[in-house]
Amino acid sequence: MAESSTNPYAQAGVDTVAGDLAVELMKASVRATHGPEVLGGVGGFAGMFDASALLGYKRPLLASSTDGVGTKVAIAQAIDKHDTIGQDLVGMVVDDIVVVGAKPLFMTDYIACGKVVPERIADIVRGIAEACSATGTALVGGETAEHPGLLGPRDYDVAGAATGVVEADAMLGADLVQDGDAVIALASSGLHSNGYSLVRHIVANAGIGYGDNAADLGATWGEALLEPTRLYTTPLLNLIEQVPNGIHSLSHVTGGGIAANLARVLPVGSWAEVDRSTWAPSTVFRVLADIAGTPIVDTEGTWNLGIGFLAVVAAEKKDAAIAAIEAQGIHAWQVATVHTGARPSGEFEEGAKGVDGGAVRLVGAYADGAK
Questions:
Q1: Do residues 65 and 199 both lie within one domain?
Q2: Residue 369's pLDDT is what?
Q3: Within a domain: residue 368?
Q4: Domain annotation covers residue 5
Q5: What is the pLDDT of residue 349?
Q6: pLDDT band at 51, cuts 50/70/90?
Q7: Could you tell me if 181 and 163 lie in one domain?
Q8: Is the alpha carbon torsion for 228, 38, 166, 70 positive or negative?
Q9: Which domain holds residue 271?
């Protein structure tokens, strides 16, 4: 029910009654992520988390991450489907924490919108909560802000932040990587949540509507492009436990593509050549590149091309690592070997996002013959 038109705030376009209803609709989903360590329930000024479990650590290091979903939300808005964007958010935020070997503890979210539609907000938060449950993360709080005049009635954006913990002597990173380590790829579920400005540009230039059928993708364009980001946190934490001392570093393949993100988790002076022939980019990438008339290699700095995560593993444990990942329903395979000697001539990606890391390039042709 909308607020009375005599309310000055309502006259300015802010409906606090709708906001309260949205909170009521999302309460059950949020509570489902709460274990006994979450105090105070839903609706407090601050989310409370009992950190006494950290007393069992010798030297607990807190890991934090914050991110959003990017322009993928524009497609959700275009087809009025909002129940998967929350999983995208958790994938972008929580899966960054596991890169250092950390177990996620809790997360908060922020939704800015032009108009609070309670059912829409509840769909978004329900997706966040379900993904938090899948990754063992408590959703301890959040905020929904109505910004009339700044955002249109159908517009919204989402962001989140999460905190995790890792024992200091169990932290993963480039310093553990050795000559001869194997680089293992974990398959993505599709585009995940990066490169959607390019996706939307391609689709718009081709005159494609999000409700149009995408025959090669087995759905409408909107549905196919909203395929949610795969969640890697639980499988990777299991991998670390099942292959003790075998996992040296992890890389979340997000903005910047495969080479740049792998380079960030390799030591300075090391190098790796990722062999394209070990996999075929997922159909969605090939279809989009074909429509754009762009060689698929030209998109390597934008899209994940079928690899959502990379694990740098001790050479003698690579088979065990691949088997452990595959047993959890994620296709995995070796794409490269790390070297610390003199590297071949030619251009390499060297570090990224301010990190002085190793050097990486992609070589060869993709398994399906794409150039």
A1: no
A2: 66
A3: no
A4: no
A5: 87
A6: confident
A7: no
A8: positive
A9: 174-363
